[in-house]
Amino acid sequence: MAIPVVDFSKVGNGASPEERAATMALIAKHCEEWGFFQLVNHGISEELLERVKKVCTEFFKLEREQNFKQSPLFKSLSDLPDGQKLENVDWEDVITLLDHNEWPSKTLGFKISCLHFRDTMAEYRAELRKLAGQVMEVMDENLGLPKSYIKNAFNSGGEEAFFGTKVSHYPPCPKPEMVNGLRAHTDAGGVIMLFQDDVVGGLEVLKDGEWFDVQPMRNSIVINTGDQVEVLSNGRYKSAWHRVQAKPDGNRRSIASFYNPSMKATIAPAPQLVENGGVGVEAFGYPEFVFGDYMSVYAEQKFDPKEPRFQAVRAM
Ligand SMILES: O=C(O)CCC(=O)C(=O)O
Ligand SMILES: [Fe+2]
Q: Rounded to two decimals, what is the model's pTM?
């Protein structure tokens, strides 16, 4: 079974009321049952997406590939005796783009290709930030929350929401059974938008105790919800476990954009979603906390179950 696909144009202005209602209901169901779905007709131009793929591939080849091949990780894997598995590492090359770090200028010279990378990724990030806003509004509506509820919660605490983009490559792995591409985890933050490789698969999501492929689909955007949406929705939208398998062939490109609360934002279940609102959220399991505190716990426990993280942050 493949993960669900949603035509996002059917929630937009051009859709009939019936089409819109049906698509909104589907998105609600996918958020509740999967925590993962793919958007097509999401409004981001094919031309931009093609450029993003090109500059990211070029960037990896020019700036990263050689280092990866010379990394201690590469050597550890080739030295590892058969039958063993490398623990606590991921077969992944990562750079992260932020608002004030649109490109990792410290590591790069002023090559033309890098300028293309920076400009294209800035354009892409602006589009993805808009898409995050639209997806959050759909979730507000489906959860019966006022418009912009989730966005305002993430932007609380006197700081703007965090918006980061992780550009990953999972190079072909000579011994894929001996290392993970990316170990299983749930995402800490809010709404995650993934532009994954058209061809090379490897991403899997856990549903009802079974792992499912997140099937590559040309120029689609995969949406998943993180731990903070689980808390805000009072458990209606659970963050799903996912992982990436290392693969023997092909270099998998995957660009994950995270729309997360600001570090100072206070996160708690929306009062509208807590039954018998007067009793207090503690009784229902999800704590109220500052997101920065959650992140300090997550930094130590990313690859562990989320429930102890909720417990830890409750005690802070
Ligand atoms: O690379 C991928 O496809 C998934 C990345 C991911 O799950 C993450 O960075 O949290
Ligand atoms: Fe993730």
A: 0.94
